[in-house]
Specification:
CATH class of the largest domain: Alpha Beta
Number of helices: 16
CATH architecture of the largest domain: Alpha-Beta Barrel
Radius of gyration: 21 Å
Pfam families: Amidohydro_1
CATH topology of the largest domain: TIM Barrel
Bound molecules: N-(iminomethyl)-L-glutamic acid, fe (iii) ion
Mean pLDDT: 96
Strand content: 15-25%
Subcellular location: Cytoplasm
Family: Belongs to the metallo-dependent hydrolases superfamily. HutI family.
Shape: globular
Cofactor: Zn(2+); Fe(3+)
InterPro entries: Amidohydro-rel, HutI, Metal-dep_hydrolase_composite, Metal_Hydrolase
Length: 417
């Protein structure tokens, strides 16, 4: 069966060069085709172009085999790739929300046993089935919001059994949902209460017990560490990344959210796929990223929610670097997976142009989760994960109308949902 989307007002993020990412000043450029068609066969995109060049399917193959969708007045975008989330979690943390409003910092909340440790307690009490059901609801929500691929981290378990429980839920979601999902093992997300004052022993446990078991069950694509002030040091991160990589997991880390942590440099040292957060980035960090294969990834939802300084995105782009954006969907610092809103935050708070924000949430974020060959742009042979908008006047209207749901039809793996 073929699906033909015709009369598309604008087909956005068209790629004919198989680019792995866009960087620097190119981020402001977006390849688009006005008055376009898009042809999907099975799960894949097989053709696209101007309406005036549309092949005559009626004559060529008989109209029966082509289902046509008339997108007059509407645009077609590649689905968002959300390269950093923690969307498998138990409960919620709105009590901390009030604490934050009253003025407590993220670190102060963490020190009082709130924060990640609060989620770890709830995670311990939840069954695998409960976790799966609640994560599935979040997945369904983000599908409706235009996301077609998502990376999900563990890290609310903090014991071998609970980390495996989280990762098994992610593995099940990979099989049961139409999204492309990648899993990251984040055992080093926080030091659990039982190991208070014995951080080195916890790190040893992550390395010697958790990583081998995660690898044996093939539960994670990537190895992650929260390398930041008050969490894990550069030396600990170095050891954990090294161990994860020996077990076939590429690094993808949390870095420089709370301070100049050295996390970016250690990430680049291990050829991390991405280093994420990046509120604290100076010249040394930019130099480390230049010429590397590591995608700087910014999480505007967490910075907004925690009211933090903004990552110097313009400085990174001016230095010729690429930038990706992700939601960081999690109960503590970013309780939303709405990537369209992430674009709006990026435009207003980081002064990114709408075109830059679109590149950062599609092709660049696809790279940041290792799926750029399959997703992130409209290209022949890529998986047909796209959405059709409602009638909108321009591309810029997407981040501009920040509270409106402008997504009308979602197509994942060639299927209209
Ligand atoms: O990416 N920065 C560290 N980890 C998460 C927050 C997790 C939480 O507070 O529950 C993040 O923001
Ligand atoms: Fe995170």
């Amino acid at each position: 069966m073929k699906l033909l989307i015709s009369n598309i007002k604008t087909l956005v993020q068209v790629d004919t060069e198989a680019r792995k990412w866009v960087a620097g000043t190119d981020m402001a450029k977006l390849n688009c085709i006005d008055d376009a068609y898009l042809l999907i066969e099975g799960e894949r995109i097989t053709d696209f172009g101007k309406m005036e060049d549309i092949p005559d399917f009626d004559e060529k193959e008989g109209f029966d085999c082509v289902e046509e969708y008339d997108a007059t007045g509407r645009m077609v975008f590649p689905s968002f790739c959300d390269s950093h989330t923690h969307l498998v979690y138990a409960g919620s943390r709105e009590i901390e929300y009030s604490d934050k409003i009253k003025g407590l910092s993220y670190e102060e909340i963490a020190k009082r046993g709130g924060g990640i440790l609060n989620s770890a307690k709830l995670m311990h009490e939840a069954t695998e089935e409960e976790l799966y059901e609640s994560a599935l609801e979040r997945i369904q929500e983000i599908i409706g919001l235009g996301t077609g691929a998502v990376e999900i981290k563990s890290g609310y378990g903090l014991t071998l059994a609970d980390e495996l429980k989280m990762l098994r839920v992610i593995k099940r979601l990979k099989k049961t949902t139409p999204l492309t999902i990648k899993a990251s093992f984040l055992g080093a997300h926080a030091v659990p209460a039982e190991y208070k004052g014995r951080q080195a022993e916890y790190v040893d446990m992550v390395i010697n017990e958790m990583i081998p078991m995660v690898a044996a069950e093939d539960l994670a694509d990537y190895i992650d560490v929260f390398c930041d002030k008050g969490f894990f040091t550069v030396e600990e991160t170095d050891r954990i990344l090294n161990a994860g990589m020996k077990h076939g997991m590429r690094a993808k880390i949390h870095a420089n959210e709370l301070d100049y942590s050295g996390g970016i440099q250690v990430g680049v040292k291990y050829n991390a796929l991405s280093v994420d957060h990046l509120e604290f980035v100076g010249d040394a960090e930019i130099e480390a990223l230049k010429g590397s294969e590591t995608m700087p990834t910014v999480l505007p939802g967490a910075a907004f929610f925690l009211n933090m300084v903004c990552s110097p995105v313009r400085k990174m782009m001016n230095a010729g670097l690429p930038v990706a954006l992700a939601s960081d969907f999690n109960p503590g610092s970013s309780p939303s997976g709405n990537m369209k809103f992430i674009m709006s935050l990026a435009c207003i708070n980081y002064k990114m142009l709408p075109q830059e924000a679109i590149n950062a949430t599609t092709l660049n974020s696809a790279y940041a989760m290792g799926v750029e060959d399959e997703l992130g742009s409209i290209a022949k042979g890529k998986i047909a994960n796209v959405y059709i908008t409602k009638e909108i006047p321009s591309i810029e209207y997407m981040p501009y109308a920040y509270g409106s749901n402008l997504i009308d039809v979602v197509i994942l793996r060639g299927k209209v949902l």
